[in-house]
Amino acid sequence: MSFNRPPNGVYYLRSAVELRAFVNLLKKFKGYATTLITLYINAERPIPDVVNLLRSEWSTAANIKDKTTRTHVQDTLERIINNLKGEAKAPENGMAVFAGFHMINQGNYEWVYYVVIPPQPINTFKYICDTAFHTELLEDQLHAGVVYGIVVIERGEAVIALLKGGQWEVVKSVEFFVPGKHHAGGQSANRFKRQTEHLAEAFYKMVAEEANKIFLQIPTLKGIIVAGPGPTKEDFLEEGGLDYRLKDKILAIVPACCANEYGVMEAIRNAQEQLKESEYVKAKEVMDKVMYYAVKKSEYLVYGRERALKALEMGIADIIVIAEELGEDAVLEVIMKAEEKGIKVEVVPRGVEESKTLMQAFGGYVALLSTPVWVLEQQLSIAEAAQR
Q1: Labelling 170: which of 22, 216, 269, 333 has CA 20 to 30 A away?
Q2: Is the distance from CB of 124 to CB of 42 less than 8 angstroms?
Q3: Helix axes of 305-314 and 328-341: crossing angle, nearest 10 degrees
């Protein structure tokens, strides 16, 4: 077995959406007594050492009194050992093995074997026998994903937002009266200017104080985008008192229309290059590609469940795009079939606005093809004729 070219049963998960679907799948399996084996292997752990440990566990399992438990544990260990033999080390992110006999009912068992390569590194080694698979380390990755902070500020108004995984949310709005820069009647220009600057400075400090409270509590904060119309965003950074640790995390200062949800979306759009590791931005880029194909290269695109899966089955799809909104069963079906064919899958999260387009215009499924669509149409016609 080579982890660089995964066989059936080895799944490289590239996003939190895929990881979440797999965790939910693994939670459905139950073993007879402590017969389901969970094995987490970090990249630094030599596979031969793991194999030796499993052989030792196989010998220990011979002492289990219950015959069914003993047989299931030893059989599972043998199969894992046979699959790991010959490998020097795990992939860069480590790997998690989930194997055993799922108990459908008493005396009726189904063999289950999954090797998961997660999107983030596994940093420990664990071997567990239990009645259920242990998914805690994978679930920790769901809660520890990369987070970006966004501050959109204009004169007297600001919003602070967080971009995590496939969605963003405004977590704080700040409003403060700062008069415009025009001269007020009856006041001296210099006095009015000083008052305005003092109020603006107080507002910047208020926004910075809120940003400090929110962002400094996030250990996985990857970076911050500061946005807004005109020079207000630069004035905020100069005068607001943003914590020096946060200033070091500023990735970009970009224009945005206004301090509201539209401004947040514009900030994300204008900082796509700096946010390219975000699942949200990756999903938007995928949908931009889908729309480009739909308009410019429509002969290399099919959509809808039947046609997309047929393209996958025939191996003529370069990429399968599927909406998370279809549910974990649909997502897992595509991931597993695509892994067998070596075809890339992109899952568009619910939180991305383009997810609605994917659902409404394409039925939630799109296949970008390596050959023109007439090849698929020809195969479908042959299949339909054979059924008549």
Answers
A1: 22
A2: yes
A3: 20
Domain finish residue from 241, 276, 311: 276
Q: How many separate domains does the chain show?
A: 3
Where residue 120 falls (left for φ over 0; alpha for ψ -120 to 50; beta otherwise) is beta
Between CA 254 and CA 256 the distance in angstroms is 7
Report the chain (388 residues): mean pLDDT per 10 consecutive residues: 46 85 92 93 94 95 93 95 88 94 90 91 94 92 82 92 87 76 54 64 90 92 93 87 92 93 93 86 90 94 93 92 91 88 89 87 95 80 69
Q: Could you give the strand order of the β-sheet that contains 167-175, starting from the edge strand earlier in sequence?
A: 167-175, 157-164, 147-154, 221-228, 250-255
Beta carbons of 324 and 20 less than 8 angstroms apart: no
Domain containing residue 57 = 10-143
Segment holding 111, helix H or strand E: strand 108-117
Q: What ranges in 181-304 are assigned the alpha helix state H?
A: 189-215, 232-239, 244-247, 261-270, 279-296
pTM for this structure? 0.71
CATH number at residue 233: 3.30.420.60
Distance of alpha carbon 305 from alpha carbon 289, whole angstroms: 19
Domain check: are 65 and 176 in the same one?
Answer: no
DSSP 47-108: HHHHHHHHHHHHHHHTT-SSHHHHHHHHHHHHHHHHHHTT--B--TT-EEEEEEEEEEETTE
Where is the domain boundary, 110, 143, 176?
Answer: 143
Please, are residues 303 and 358 in contact by the beta-carbon 8 Å criterion? no
Same domain, 293 and 234: no
pLDDT tens digits, residue range 14-29?
A: 888 888 889 999 999 9
Identify the three-state secondary structure at position 263: helix
Q: For residues 347 and 321, what is the distance between their CA atoms, to the nearest angstrom?
A: 6
- DSSP-H helix ranges across 297-370: 305-314, 328-341, 354-362
Q: How far apart are CA 218 and CA 160, in angstroms?
A: 14
Burial class (CB in 10 A: 0-12, 13-18, 19+), 15: buried
What tokens does 265 get? 């979306």
Checking phi first, is residue 304 left (phi over 0); if not, alpha (psi -120 to 50) or beta? left
